[in-house]
Amino acid sequence: MRKSITRISPRNSILSALIGALLAMIFSVNLGHAAAVPDAMQDGARHFQRADYKAAVASWQPMAIKGNPVAQNNLGILYLDGKGVKQDTSEAVRYLSLSAAAGSSLGQNNLGGLYREGKGVPRDYAKAAQWFMASAAQGNAAAMYNLGLMYEMGQGMKAEPFHAYMWYALAAEQNSIANAAAHRDALWNRMTPAAQKQAKEMTATCKSMAFKGCR
């Protein structure tokens, strides 16, 4: 999910990041909203923020085993980075797959990142795009940015600036992905006035559709 938070590389790298932080493949741990999550989730978030990863694992693992998709996502990232547990890409894939299948936008985005990077799974741009689309349809800005990258670079599809602009613009509107606006503006400056008009119309249409079915 790698990405830009403290280190960035829109074409590689993986590092766990708080939700809202960006990376080219943004891999995010959800720390949740204090009033809306169980105590164990809050405890895990506090431990994670203090870099006490073993304690975070102890808080989140029981929830993940019971099927909590947010805890599954978070545990998957800890396995991916080897924080609080022995680094185990297979376990990371397993937990992120469970989270994604359960409908977590975070898990979907992060699993898409694994397929894009070919980390723990065979590189598969089609599957990456599928999971990013599912996540973006739920309003996940990181997934929108990742789709923008795939369209801009022609990963698994023909390079196509209109959809790349659209996804960058939608991600930028959420003000949580640092590089989205820069990518959006760079594309905009290379477009003709007619292309700019089309790109803006596509963006508005996708937004009106609540990000669903924006092909």
**Strand-and-helix sequence, N→C?**
EEHHHHHHHHHH
User: Looking at the structure, what is the overall shape?
Assistant: elongated
Q: Supply the CATH class.
A: Mainly Alpha
Largest sheet: 2 strands, parallel
Given helix and strand content, the structural type is mainly alpha
Number of domains: 1
Question: Rg to the nearest angstrom?
Answer: 17 Å
Uncertain stretches? 1-26
State the CATH topology. Serine Threonine Protein Phosphatase 5, Tetratricopeptide repeat
Order of strands side by side in the largest beta sheet? Answer: 1-2
Q: What do we call the CATH homologous superfamily?
A: Tetratricopeptide repeat domain
Average predicted local confidence, pLDDT: 86
What is the rounded distance between the termini?
A: 22 Å
Helix content: 55-70%
Strand content: under 5%
Instruction: Count the E strands.
Output: 2
Helix tally? 10
By CATH, the architecture is named Alpha Horseshoe
Protein described:
The chain has one domain (17-208): Tetratricopeptide repeat domain (Serine Threonine Protein Phosphatase 5, Tetratricopeptide repeat). It has 215 residues and is mainly α. The chain has a two-stranded parallel ribbon. Helix 1 (39-49) runs antiparallel to helix 2 (53-65) and helix 4 (89-101) crosses helix 5 (105-117). The chain has helices at 39-49, 53-65, 69-81, 89-101, 105-117, 125-136, 141-153, 161-173, 180-190, 193-208, and strands at 17-18, 28-29. It contains 10 helices and 2 strands; from the N terminus they run ββαααααααααα. Residues 1-26 have low confidence and may be disordered.
